[in-house]
Amino acid sequence: MPYTRAPRRKVTVIGAGNVGATVAQRVVETGLADVVLLDIVPGLPQGKALDLAEAAPILGYDVSVTGTNDYADTAGSAVIVVTSGLARQPGMSRDDLLAKNAQIVGGVVEQAAKVSPDAVIVVVTNPLDAMCHVALKTSGFPPSRVIGMAGVLDSARFRTFVAMELGVSPANTSAFVLGGHGDTMVPVPSYCTVGGVPITQLLSQEQIERIVQRTRDGGAEIVALLKSGSAYYAPGAATGEMIDAILEDRQKILPCAAYLGGEYGVQGLFVGVPVRLGRQGVVEIVEVTLSDDERRQFDHSAAAVKELVEKLATLS
Ligand code: APR
């Protein structure tokens, strides 16, 4: 006898490209929520969603995954993940990309926020910190419900390199990376540990500096290897961890791009900081003590984000 089960909580993923499809895969494979995958290209989200649905009997999940080009299908989402955007094309300047992606993110957020007014928005599209501003402005949501995914990914890269250097389990490592998502990110070795032991006691200064640099170049390293396209497995996993913390109200402290209202001496900018994540989004911004040098790097990073946001205002 056919039976239509009651809908579960819903996660909408906008952009069914590499990152979006990987996020959808993470969410369904962990059984966290029903997923609606939306893209501007007809057939693309439908095809990827059907492919994911056909993996369910093997992997054993029973949440639903559907693809659409219509925002009406995303109504009532608990989380909206924004991955839609363009990659930088040959001949396209950074400013061109900034303007184009701002237009895309603004457009999708406007439509998605209207039908899911209580959602938490997780922004993934680059340039990340600037796109968070666009999402905040367009949605009209409180800043606590607009969060950027960067720090979890950057920290995971840092942890991976620490684990490789020491030959320990990556799961044994803990780290966070502050600041903007880009060249000015600030890995903070003094807060990085392996089994609770600070890495400053396990690695030489030279080793740490090498890992810090590789983390800063982490995205570019993958792009150079792939030749076309950019990373998506680790970005998908990082976004998945944030969605899990939000939906399950885990009150987990994770490094995310959050809107600062005076914390860390920064007013009105999205910058990567440790935040406590729960059902309402950012529950708390955790302020940690930084050394003078870390502080200088953080301020430099925040200034770079400010510059980008000001540039955005002149472009739009
Ligand atoms: N509405 C909906 N979807 C759109 C729109 C739009 N207005 N514009 C573009 N898209 C879709 C594209 O059709 C494409 O399927 O966004 C998707 C982007 O996917 P990819 O090109 O595969 O890019 P991806 O690797 O997934 O990266 C997405 O995440 O990590 C960041 O820097 C990365 O900004 C990039 C984003």
Task: Give keywords.
316 residues; alpha/beta; Rossmann fold; L-2-Hydroxyisocaproate Dehydrogenase, Chain A, domain 2; 2 domains; six-stranded parallel sheet; three-stranded antiparallel sheet; 10 helices; 14 strands; binds adenosine-5-diphosphoribose
In the CATH hierarchy, the third-tier topology of the largest domain is known as L-2-Hydroxyisocaproate Dehydrogenase, Chain A, domain 2
Order of helices and strands: EHEHHEEHEHEHEEEEEHHHEEEH
How many strands? 14
- Trace the largest sheet across and list its strands: 3-2-1-4-5-6
Present as ligands are:
adenosine-5-diphosphoribose
Strand content: 15-25%
Mean pLDDT: 94
Largest sheet: 6 strands, parallel
Architecture per CATH nomenclature, i.e. the level-2 architecture of the largest domain: Alpha-Beta Complex
CATH superfamily of the largest domain: Lactate dehydrogenase/glycoside hydrolase, family 4, C-terminal
Provide an overview of this structure:
This protein is globular. The termini are far apart. The longest helix has 24 residues, at about 290-315. It has helices at about 20-30, 45-55, 55-60, 95-115, 130-140, 150-165, 205-215, 220-225, 235-245, 290-315, and strands at about 10-15, 35-40, 65-70, 80, 120-125, 145-150, 175, 175-180, 185, 195, 195-200, 250-260, 265-280, 280-285. With about 325 residues, the protein is of the alpha/beta class. Strand 10 (about 195) and strand 11 form a beta hairpin. The protein has two domains: about 10-150, NAD(P)-binding Rossmann-like Domain (Rossmann fold), CATH 3.40.50; about 150-315, L-2-Hydroxyisocaproate Dehydrogenase, Chain A, domain 2 (Alpha-Beta Complex), CATH 3.90.110.10. The protein has a six-stranded parallel beta sheet with strand order 3-2-1-4-5-6, with helices on both faces. It contains ten helices and 14 strands. Helix 1 packs parallel to helix 2 and helix 1 (about 20-30) crosses helix 9 (about 235-245). Helix content is about 45%, strand content about 20%.
